[in-house]
Structure formats: C-alpha cells, structure tokens
Amino acid sequence: MDPEIERKAKEAAELPNADIKIILLGDSAVGKSKLVERFLIDDYEERQLSTFALTMFRYNTEIDGEPTKIDIWDTAGQDCFSRLHSSYYFGAHAAILVFDVTRKITYDHLKVWYKEMRTFCPSIPCILLANKIDVDLEVTKKSFKFAETHGLDFFFVSAADGTNVVRIFETICRKALEYKRNPPRTFEQDVLELLDDDSWLQ
After folding, report:
1. Which of 194, 181, 189 lies closest to 63 in space, CA to CA?
2. Where are the alpha helices (DSSP H) in the chain?
3. Out of 3.40.50.300, 3.40.640.10, 3.90.1300.10, 3.40.720.10, which CATH number does the structure's domain 3-201 have?
4. GO terms for molecular function, please (predicted)?
5. Is 91 left (phi over 0), alpha (psi -120 to 50) or beta?
6. pTM score, whole prediction
7. What is the pLDDT of residues 96-107, one digit of tens each?
C-alpha cells in the first residue's frame, strides 16, 4: 500500500466515529476538494492537482445546539466509468454531486455518478452543485434539467470566491442529520412488522 494512503487510513481509524457521513461525487477537477477546503478554512488556493486517492475531512460543529462530528469523504473521480468501492458509499447519510460549468462533459457524466450512488444509497438526500460560476456568471441564467428530473436541490457555487459554499454545506449537513434521525422505511421493515403482527390472521 502507498505510504501516504496507509498514513491517512491510520489517521482515519484513530478518529472517533462520526455522527454523519457525507460523500462527494463528480468527475476529476470539478472542484470537489476545493469546495470543502473553502468551507473548512475559508481560504482558497489555486491548484490543478486531482485529489490523491481518498481524502476524509473531519468537521466538528453544532446542529440544533448539539455537538455533531461530520465526515466528508472525497475521492478523485479520475474516470466516471471507474466504479467506486462500495465502502465509499457504506453508511453515507447524504451526497453532494458536483459538475464544472466550464466543461459540459462533467455535466453529461452526472447520470453515471447518480446511477451508481443510487445503487448503493437508494434514498439518501443528494444535492447538485454547478461549480466555477466565477468564470462566467452568465451561466447562472441557464437552467439545468438534471436536478429537476431527479428532484435534487440545485445550487450555483464557486470555490474561488466562496459563492454559496457555506450555504450548501449547512444545507447538506442538516439534510444528512434529518435522514439519520428519520430514515425512510424499507420493504424489509414492512415485512418484519407484518410478520410480528398476527392480527391479520384472526
């Protein structure tokens, strides 16, 4: 194993379990890591390097007055056709899907990312971000049907100037916590409850 990956895995293992897990999805270089860094340290550094392997950001905050530990997982989406390991999705409470408004191909690939995410996480809340709007603000006048088609909250953002960055992370953290508190019912739960309730046999 690469020493850097091994070091990060060891550090992650030593952290106490998080209350919430949020995953980031999207092609390489759409700005996923930069959005997180902007949110966590309110600083932005121009870099062209893709995220190396897996990065997990730990964020400690308060939601509704309760201390909340949040893990934000990021991976280098070097190829939208390279499936992520199922462990990346395991236990996720919410997802952030990102595309780059300056590269149409990253928008076209959203369907691949979304399909895979729903395979492993059929019901977690997900929001869609159109990043790098600082390059051309005219793009904010356009409509993007993907969000509407899939019923996703949609935001225009910029890691470079911070537009909507705090807002989207506050939004997804609350959605994740709500999902954890009130997970959707599953078919298995319905069957088990039906088997438990023998009144229908009377």
Report:
1. 181
2. 3-14, 32-41, 86-89, 104-108, 110-120, 145-150, 165-181, 187-196
3. 3.40.50.300
4. GTP binding; GTPase activity
5. left
6. 0.79
7. 999 999 999 999
